[in-house]
Amino acid sequence: MILTLEHVTGGYGSRTVVDDVSFTLHPGEVVCLLGANGCGKTTLFKMILCLLKPKLGRVCLGEEEIANWSRSRLARSFGYVPQMHVPPFDFEVRDIVLMARASHLAPFASPGKEDRRIADEALEYLGILDLASARYTEISGGERQLVLIARALAQQAQWLILDEPAASLDLGNQIKVFHAINDLAKTGLGVLMTTHLPDHAFMYASRAVLMSEGRILAMDTPSKALTEPMLQKAYGVQVSVVEIGVHPGIKPGIKMVVPNQL
Amino acid sequence: MATMPSLDKALENRKPHRMASGKTLAVLVVLLAVVAIGSASIGSYPISLHDWWSMLMAPSAGGTPEIVLLQIRLPRLLACLLVGCGLALAGSSYQGLFNNPMVSPDILGASAGAGLGAAVGILLGLDFVAIQALSFAGGLVAVLLAWALASGLCRRGDPVLMLVLVGILIGSMFTALISLTKYIADPLNKLPAVTFWLLGSFASITTKDVWLAGIPIAVGCIPLLLLRWRLNVLCMGEQEARTLGVNTRTLRFIVIVCATLITAASVSICGMVGWIGLVVPHLARMVVGPNHKILLPTAAIMGGCFLLLVDDVARTAGALEIPVGILTALIGAPFFLFLLMRERRHKA
Hints:
The complex is a heterodimer of chains A (262) and B (348). Chain A is of the alpha/beta class.
């Protein structure tokens, strides 16, 4: 099913944070959303997830507008990976992942054997099954991020929405997570994620959306959308986009952003 | 992976191992039975093993031990069990709902409202059942008021935070009104009556009271137990819980209604018995962890045990009965401190 945003406009109170955003996402795509702090990325996510009502415009999945869908139907469509935070209670990691099953269970039911299998599979997919009975409050920030991604997988949704999945990860875990995301997209999942680093988009995204002050500045394949003038406009700094030459072991034509006068 | 077994071990050693849920519950049920039989046996008229034996051999023979047990001790025991289980259950649910381990079931003003209802009833010279009904209604009104105000104020922002703030506000307003009723009460007979009532006691419990309070408490407990796994998801915070497919508004409403039924009914038969809803969930969480699936039944049984034991002390420690509300605070507060210190030691 195709995810369509039509002239989505919204914000808080009288303040408009997202202004007339339209785009279409297809299953199997990995789309990176970029932009300076406060440009409306998170607000846009909130409207896609129906946590915030758009003032104008609409969000559709397939032909249907999702505004009036039930919470469980929305959760079966969108797996959301928030930026990690620490809850006040020391749940076990497996219990955190099992929360993903809420949308698949009847109101009075609790997860059973099959749900636990799905949760363990998700943990194994990300290589953290050995953390299953650790306390979520006691593992590292990077591990927590991986747990939240595992939880979104256990939700078995068609779309993955990730809010800066790489924010607190070390290099190894970053690469692991992005490879996992790419593999998932190959199985037909649609992925929409925010990132602060254009390099991530160059390396892993099929498309990039660059936002500035609530509007879409550019939207195309990463190398077409994230050009030097566009990045300068979005972030207000001087940068160069350089192409890495031929190197054994890496895909040719990969680009990187380097600040000027370094 | 070669490192897995050692890592597994390292993780298990981080904290004392949580007990397996089935075993814990079995142990607790046995403990509760022992405490209940023990509590039934002690008091100003002790029931010996021999008495138990003859009662078992010849039921309804109508001896003194049987009359004491059935007419005086059993209603009191049941009331303690109901209130203890109910308050612990409501407290655990509230701590999950408000995402805060420092919350007790009267955070939205249920106790203060129920207390005011009772104080007004005593002031007006109503009979005992009417006082209880007024107290129950007072608790419901206080929480409804908090809910309505919070919903009205909270067009956006964190609804949970707003509820807590408005709840504290309503609570202190109703507490002030209780003081006002005390101030205008006749100091010779009505003021002491109000004061003793608020201190909390199970001394005058009858079988009828058990029924009157037991029904709303049971009605409050059942949905909480049925929905308990979903409370886990609420612990992740309002927005995250919604993205996980939980209708937080409905769930929050049900939990608040249930906890309020339990709290108001408890206050209406035994006065303000504090601390149970705060301390017992902590104790339970320490034994079985925060998963509400197992936490709620554990807390309920522990709450029943705790209040039975405290009431035993209230009945037997002095020549006069000590108000149970004083004891729960005297025992509960230091015990809570001990739990917090223990928790800290394990974190360090």
